[in-house]
Amino acid sequence: MGIHLERALLFCTLLVLTHGLEIPDPDHIDYIRQQAKAVINTTVSLKCGSSMPTLFIWVFSKTEFDSSEALAYNYGLGPKTLPLANTLGDPFLAVNTSSLQIMQIQAEAEGIYTCQALYDTDKGPRVTFYYTHLSLQGQQNTAKGSGSV
Ligand SMILES: *[C@@H]1O[C@H](CO)[C@@H](O)[C@H](O)[C@H]1NC(C)=O
Ligand SMILES: *[C@@H]1O[C@H](CO)[C@@H](O)[C@H](O)[C@H]1NC(C)=O
After folding, report:
1. Do the domain assignments include residue 146?
2. What residue numbers bound the domain in which 57 lies?
3. pTM value?
4. Relative to the alpha carbon of 96, which ligand is closest?
5. Residue 147 within a domain
6. Which residue from 40, 102, 104 has its CB within 8 A of the most atoms of ligand 2, so it is best to mutate?
7. Within a domain: residue 145?
8. Number of structural domains the chain divides into
9. How far apart are CA 66 and CA 106, in angstroms?
10. Cβ(78) to ligand 1 under 6 A?
11. What span, in angstroms and rounded, lies between the C-alpha atoms of 68 and 102?
12. Does residue 148 sit within a domain?
């Protein structure tokens, strides 16, 4: 029995590492959607819930029809950011928080950020997906769309 449990845990860990968090029972998954707007070259802070999850991964996709790629994660061994995140600006994942900060945000960073968070609770694991649709605009002083020709 112990061996089965260990195998199951190992299998779960491998799924987490290869595909992000995957929990088969959809009743234990919550989906939260939010919108964010920011100006290029400023700092954006993307929220992933109010308490620190046990495990989490941030993924990015250009649109909801594109595939998602991992940006940053913390599987309990400390925060890690991946090379893709560096193409969007200057990424930062602080210790003890699941918020993804991107300083000097670039135009390419417009898109959908999903934080897949797993919380280990007394009633078993709960997974929450936080989707943030980020739109970006240029600096105000570029006078874009002011109507003058
Ligand atoms: C992170 O949380 C742990 C456990 O609560 C604490 O011991 C540690 O000091 C915290 N680290 C930082 C940088 O806040
Ligand atoms: C962002 O900053 C860079 C470097 O300072 C500058 O060249 C660029 O014009 C800025 N972009 C916008 C949209 O403000």
Report:
1. no
2. 2-137
3. 0.78
4. 1
5. no
6. 40
7. no
8. 1
9. 19
10. no
11. 18
12. no
95 Cβ inside 6 Å of ligand 1: yes
| Closest ligand to the CA of 97 | 1
Q: At 82, which CATH number?
A: 2.60.40.10
pLDDT in tens, the chain (149 residues): 444 444 444 444 444 544 555 555 666 788 899 999 999 999 999 999 999 999 999 999 999 899 999 999 999 999 999 999 999 999 999 889 999 999 999 999 999 999 999 999 898 888 999 999 999 998 765 545 444 44
Q: Is 138 in the pocket of ligand 2 (CB under 6 A)?
A: yes
> CA geometry: angle at 78 spanning 52 and 60, to 5°?
70
Sheet holding 124-137, edge to edge: 29-39, 124-137, 111-121, 55-61, 69-74, 80-81
Q: Which amino acid is at 85?
A: A
